[in-house]
Structure formats: structure tokens, C-alpha cells
Target: PmbA protein
Amino acid sequence: MNDIAPSSVPPAADSEARLDMLAGLSRRLLDHALAEGTDQAEVSCSEDTGLNVNVRMGEVETVESTRDRGIAVTVYFGGRKGSASTADLREDSLQATIQQACAIARHTEHDPAAGLADAGLMATDIREFDSWHPWDLDADHAIELALACEQAGRDHDPRLENSDGASVGSGSSLSVYANSHGFVGRERSTQHSLGCALIAGRGEGMQRDGWYSIALSADELESAATIGRKAAERAVSRLAPRQVPTGEYPVLYSAEVARSLVGHLLGAVSGGALYRRASFLVDSAGTQLFPEWFGIEELPFLPRGFRSASFDAEGVATRESPLVRAGVLQRYILGSYSARRLGLQTTANAGGVHNLQVASNAGDLDSMIAGMGRGLLVTELMGQGVNNITGDYSRGAAGFWIEDGRIQYPVDGITIAGNLRKMFAAIEAVGSDVDTRSHVRTGSILVGRMTVAGEG
Model:
């Protein structure tokens, strides 16, 4: 039975009224900015609230309640841009913010790519995505959940003598984006989490691992007991790690780390890296990067999606579209500025991508392990050894050695290396074990051959 109950009386029941206030404030700021002689202007207003609790070894470490507000104004005089921000709603402070933005713009260099996204691209169909689920969570209940989660994990196995703690978080966000094209977009969302990290063993043989659950609605979180137990099982499974001989082997990325490979792709096909020519995938749109069965779709309209949205950070209407189809890179990740620098059109990705789904062609993790025969299962990555310009890839890793289609023992202190372009082409399978705790939804990914640096 889940020990997490959804709110019956939302703590932010006035969210619509607050959005009305932010929308009205945005329109006033735009009017003031245009009165200063600007050609174009845009305003972003947000209000965020949150509660975060951390416990460790049965004791409360931190309880943090947050309430933040942000107002950002950007103005354009031709190709000159200026931005300023404030959290103060007093009229004199708002006027000073506009004047600061204008003063900055008047002293910047002309940039022909600067300016709002084209007016004809603004979203007109603003949808709801079932993303507003406030949790009536007070500090006492949050502490109770965190303590129960940690205790469930520590009770699971006597080798769990230490803990990195458990945490509970709940937050809500209201935001309005408006610009001088007449566009006003409103969004509201909630996000809740519960996690635990435990330490197994003693001395130099200690191993740490954990588990967490995250959702837009509290009733979709895994129970505290389940999270604690999974954290315990993962930590204990890593005890007594061994090395593996240095060589070239198949490498299976578990689902929770596989999305990092998608992240490297996104970084390489994002507009900023491309117009600076700081990417190994410059001029790669329309080329075969992956096997023919491989695909990635952007799905901005998913109910309860972590990044569902009707419009991007510039008000441009989002749309479902492939990023990779039949292994071919279909497009880049562009906002209006980077698109202009590249002589292209925005892909409605100002502010990032909106829910990516990687196509699966294989079964769950167990079946992928059975099918790979011999190689490395990676469950943790360390370090940032990725060169976005060359695609060279080298990261510390931990996980499990696979022999005869079964996990044999944990491994630690190894490095996996390759080149991302070659790694993308060498992907042999994507599992059906999709990790849904992110806006990048993928199962485990098997790369047919990589260099594994272990002993010898």
C-alpha cells in the first residue's frame, strides 16, 4: 500500500488567480517597455514554492521551505538587446528594471540575429497537460516519510551500517511568458520526489548506491518502503567489486544512465554548439548516425510529461516531430537566435526539448543481459570526459560483469572509452525497460563494442 496520499486541499488553490496577476503584470511591463521606444520586448514572470527535507541515520538534517519570485525583462532596439531582472513588485522597482534593460541595450553591439521569434510562429492553442497536482505536505509528514524510507532500507540487510540519507521534496511552479507580438502564455506544474542513498560494508570495502522516485503527482511516487528496499538491494549488490581485464567488450548502459548518451547527442545538435562550430555533429542533419531501426521522437503533448508544453521559451508553438528517424538525424535543436545564426528556422526548442522517446527494439533488462552473453553492464558513470568538438568519450564507470548471459560480480574503478559518432552507429539494442523519471525516456542501451580499461 502506498504511504503517500495526494492532497485533498491544495496549498496553492489560488494558482489561477496568481497566473492572472502574473499575466497582468507582464502586459503592464510590456506597455512600459514599448513606451521607452523599444522595437520589441518580452517578459518572463515566475513564482515557485517548495519544501525539502533531508534526514540521515534516523536524524533530521535539514528542513527547507522556499518561496521564490522572478521577473525578467528583455528589450530590443533593432538588433541591440538588453535584459534585467528583479523579484520586487513595487512600481518603482519595476520601472527601474525596464530602464536598466533599455540602458544595457543602448550600449550593446548590433546583432542581426537578435529579436523575438517570428510573430507567425506564436502558439495559439494553449493546452493543459494534467501537470498541476499540489501536495498538502507539511514538514512533519515529510520527515516521517524520509525517516521511514531510510529505515526500510537500513533494516533490509545487516551489511547496511551507514547511510547517505533520505530526502523528500515537493514543489510547484507558476510562470507566464509574454511578448510584444501580443502573445501571453501561462503554465503551472508540480513536481514531487522521494529518494534514499545507503552505504554497505565497512572501511575501504564500502559501497554506496540508492534509488529515487519522482512524479508530477504524489500518488504516482513509489512508496517509502519500496524506495528504501531498492536502495538497499542496489548498495549491497555492489559489495566486493572486482576488476576486469582491459579490452574491447559490449557495454550495456542501464536505463537510468543510458539517457546520458541521448544527452550527449542533444548537446552536439544544439544551436549554440553548431553556430560556434564546437560540435562533432556540425552539418550532420540528414546523415545516418544510428542503425536504421533507431529513432527518437519529440512528444511535447504527453499528459503528465515532465516537459510537456504548448509553447517554448519564446512563445513558439511546439509540435510533435522526429529528431532521429530510421537512424538519420532529421534536424537540430534550435531557438530563434541560433536558427538565424545558422540560416534556419527555430524548431520550437528555445529552453530545451519537450519529452523525448527513444524507440525500443528489445525486451527488458534481464533479456538484454541474457542476449549479450559477455560484457559490461554499466549502472553508474563518473567524471565528465566527453569532448563535444571531437566526440571523444572517456568516463569512469561501475556496474557488473556479464558472463554466459548472467551477472557474475560487481566491477568498479574502470574506464569506458570510445567516440560518440562510432558509439551511436554501434548501438545494437534499446530495451523496453524505459526509465520514466525524466523527460528523456529510454530503456537500456547496448553498444556493441567499447574499450574498457580495467587491470592489466
